[in-house]
Amino acid sequence: MAASQHHCNGPVKRREFLSAGLLGLGGLSLPDLLRLRAQAAEAQKIVDHETSVIFVWLPGGPPHLDMYDMKPNAPQEYRGAFQPIATNVAGLDICELMPRQAAIADRFSIVRSVSHTFADHGGGHKRMMTGRIPLTPVETVNDAPATGSIVAKSRERINNGLPNYVSFNPSGRTGDVFAQGAAYLGQSYLPFTVEGDPNSPKFVVPNISPLKNMYDRIDDRMALLGQLDRIERQIDASHLMESMDRYQQRAVSMLTSDRAKRAFDLTREPDAVRDRYGRHCWGQRALMARRLVEAGVSFVTVVMENPYQSGIAPSKQGTYNWDSHAVNCHIWDDLKIRLPIYDQAVSTLIEDLYQRGLDRKTLVLVTGEFGRTPRIENSIGSQTKIKQPGRDHWPQSMSLIMAGGGMRTGQVVGATNTKGEHPTDRPLTPNDLWATVYRHLGIDFTESFPDYRGRPMPILPSGQPISELLRG
User: What is the pTM of this model?
Assistant: First the structure.
């Protein structure tokens, strides 16, 4: 959110000019953020690659038995209401409500055997986001850095006029939502947060939008500075920039860079492309994520939480996130609305990356913090006031998909038992996922960063890249 603006009623000092109108980010001004990052990187070995990650986060816990690990032969109290359909990969079936993904299953892999032990949302978020066992099983304030923050630090010296880490976060809060905090790395490694619905005509990007107004405001301050005396009025823009603190230069450069403005501007996309992604919040977030990685952002988190927006009517049978307890929603009615929107956004994102030749550069990971209970529960809904089906939290098994990244696709990695309760083949942890991601990014996950006490903390304490996904 924007910090308060300083209005100039008369001549100002150079430093006042430089600070005026530069919007805060997580309580810091953009120049402060950049300065902290640069100071922390002085002795840091940085790996600079042209690779990127789009991390699609499904908070609440998507139901694996109703999406990617269906069990049609299980007892009725397990198997759910929907049928599996064949995909374009022989022997690979997914839910009938995701026909678009079924048509491109050769371009992603399903991982069915990730599990952990944290059944609370907070503990599950921290376990999945950080690759570490959290100190507490609840709440979402990190005690270890989220992966995006690790990437931001590891790629700190990349300066292309864009943030290295962006999060499309509905609430706008950066550090304590979905365990995206930077912990001991510090606030300068929090994501550049973009809130709101990109499909809304009122949508703006903080610190970047409204783009023209921001650019004009800085131009006005440049003109005001020029009025300090006749000599300064004759200094051209390049000399003026050279005299600025180098971190202020970078901040102004980002705020006024054509690269940033173009990357965040969805109006530059043809209507046909925007329609393909879907004229709803999830689709337009996915499209903007593609634009950002194409422009040079290293790590983009796309939160797909509430489908009931962008003109999609609220439903008493539905719920805000993927937390499909019977008390929250009628799980089948909710999925009938939720899954088609999800299917359109994710399948189009994967297709678009391939069509634009980004499938080796950009890795897509789609997951939530855990799966849902294989056994269906029935209880009274808080909205409907009638008995309805749902599923509870279940970290013992979950399903996710990975695409792009030059990986082997069109396959299933791992398996669960006949009721989807626990892995029976190729058991994996969240650390193995992140080891795969770090390998793609060229980040050595055995390297360490100091914690609050100066103790070296490895990026990942355990885990190995998933060999079935790797080429060569």
Answer: 0.83
